């Protein structure tokens, strides 16, 4: 087997291809999306790899997030586009859709006698996420690979979320915390559900928003924190500010605001105490979606990413026993 997952999370394909991580000798670095557990050692890849490949959105976002990617090394590939690799044999990388954050994708390496795929993070398989089929080896993310992680429908969660926001906004402004890319996803969903409150973004999220706006992810009534417009809006006490989830622990201590963390890790719709709430919107497939993906894909061999999931072994065992597909966990 010429596929492995390194000790620092790199998905290692043949031909010196590393996906979402770096190992010595990697010529090509592929990035499925912008989250930190998938941009591990990206600075090393920028220095030592010959090419850095991702969707146009991902590459542009990485640049505004502070990664200095040389123009001659950046290879933007949109969905269903391919890159023929400069090797002595037939080999090409092809990008497929993934529903996770803007720009996220899956990747397939096709060689003369082998097809290998990696899902990256995803949700909504078969709807907004392509199911990779006819593979010899599939590497899958299994963040919620335990059978207990089955969520309610997103419509139900959004309904509860919007009801909570309407109630809280009558009393005070709101601070929402989420991950890179997820913030824009939440803003767009709230507008679609009729929340017309002004949104205020810190500089780092404003920069991301301006990139995404270029690609059609536009949202009305968004303002930069500390701008004249934002300061006027804050005087009204009717607004929603957004911050990174990593700041939730210490920023939730601020008085005068309701604080909402958006994450799927707790498996609930909406839970709260006092002025702090958690809303269970996730960018990851739950257990049923993971099983559905594998059942439809039916690779000859399934590799479950054990670097990024606590439940990789549970999921791999389920696939072996119930779908009769050979499944292993890496790193060993």
Report on this structure.
The protein has 332 residues and is α/β, with parallel strands linked by helices. 27% of the residues lie in helices and 25% in strands. It folds into two domains: 4-147 and 285-330, Ribonuclease Z/Hydroxyacylglutathione hydrolase-like (Metallo-beta-lactamase, Chain A, 4-Layer Sandwich), CATH 3.60.15; 154-279, Rossmann fold, CATH 3.40.50. It has helices at 42-48, 56-64, 154-169, 182-192, 203-214, 228-236, 248-251, 287-297, 312-323, and strands at 4-5, 11-13, 17-19, 28-30, 51-54, 74-76, 82-84, 91-97, 105-111, 114-118, 137-140, 174-178, 199-201, 222-224, 240-244, 258-262, 270-273, 276-279, 301-305, 326-330. Strands 7-8-9-10-11-19-20 form a seven-stranded mixed sheet, with helices on one face. Helix 2 runs antiparallel to helix 5 (203-214). The radius of gyration is 21 Å and the shape is globular.
What features would you highlight for this structure?
332 residues, alpha/beta, Metallo-beta-lactamase, Chain A, Rossmann fold, 2 domains, 7-stranded mixed β-sheet, 27% helix
Summarize the structure.
The protein has helices spanning 42-48, 56-64, 154-169, 182-192, 203-214, 228-236, 248-251, 287-297, 312-323, and strands at residues 4-5, 11-13, 17-19, 28-30, 51-54, 74-76, 82-84, 91-97, 105-111, 114-118, 137-140, 174-178, 199-201, 222-224, 240-244, 258-262, 270-273, 276-279, 301-305, 326-330.
């Amino acid at each position: 087997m010429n596929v492995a997952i390194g000790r620092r999370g790199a998905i290692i394909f043949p031909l010196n291809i590393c996906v979402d991580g770096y190992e010595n000798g990697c010529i090509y670095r592929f990035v499925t999306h912008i989250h930190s557990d998938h941009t591990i050692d990206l600075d090393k890849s920028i220095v030592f790899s010959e090419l850095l490949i991702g969707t146009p959105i991902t590459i542009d976002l990485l640049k505004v997030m502070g990664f200095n990617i040389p123009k001659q090394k950046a290879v933007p590939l949109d969905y269903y586009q391919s890159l023929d690799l400069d090797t002595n044999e037939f080999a090409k990388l092809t990008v497929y859709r993934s529903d996770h954050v803007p720009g996220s994708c899956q990747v397939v390496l096709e060689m003369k006698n082998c097809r290998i795929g990696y899902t990256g993070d995803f949700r909504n398989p078969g709807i907004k996420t392509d199911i990779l089929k006819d593979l010899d080896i599939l590497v899958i993310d299994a963040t919620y690979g335990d059978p207990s992680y089955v969520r309610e429908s997103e419509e139900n969660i959004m309904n509860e979320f919007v009801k909570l926001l309407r109630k809280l906004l009558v009393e005070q402004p709101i601070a929402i915390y989420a991950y890179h890319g997820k913030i824009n996803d939440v803003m767009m969903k709230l507008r679609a559900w009729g929340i017309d409150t002004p949104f205020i973004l810190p500089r780092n999220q404003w920069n991301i928003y301006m990139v995404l706006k270029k690609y059609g992810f536009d949202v009305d009534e968004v303002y930069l924190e500390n701008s004249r417009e934002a300061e006027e809006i804050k005087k009204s006490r009717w607004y929603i500010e957004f911050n990174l989830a990593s700041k939730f622990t210490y920023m939730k201590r601020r008085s005068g605001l309701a604080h909402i963390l958006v994450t799927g890790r707790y498996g609930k719709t909406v839970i709260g105490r006092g002025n702090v709430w958690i809303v269970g919107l996730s960018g990851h497939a739950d257990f049923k979606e993971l099983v559905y993906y594998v059942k439809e894909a039916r690779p000859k061999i399934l590799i479950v990413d054990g670097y990024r999931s606590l439940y990789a072994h549970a999921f791999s065992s389920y696939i072996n026993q119930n779908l009769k597909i050979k499944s292993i966990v890496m790193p060993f």
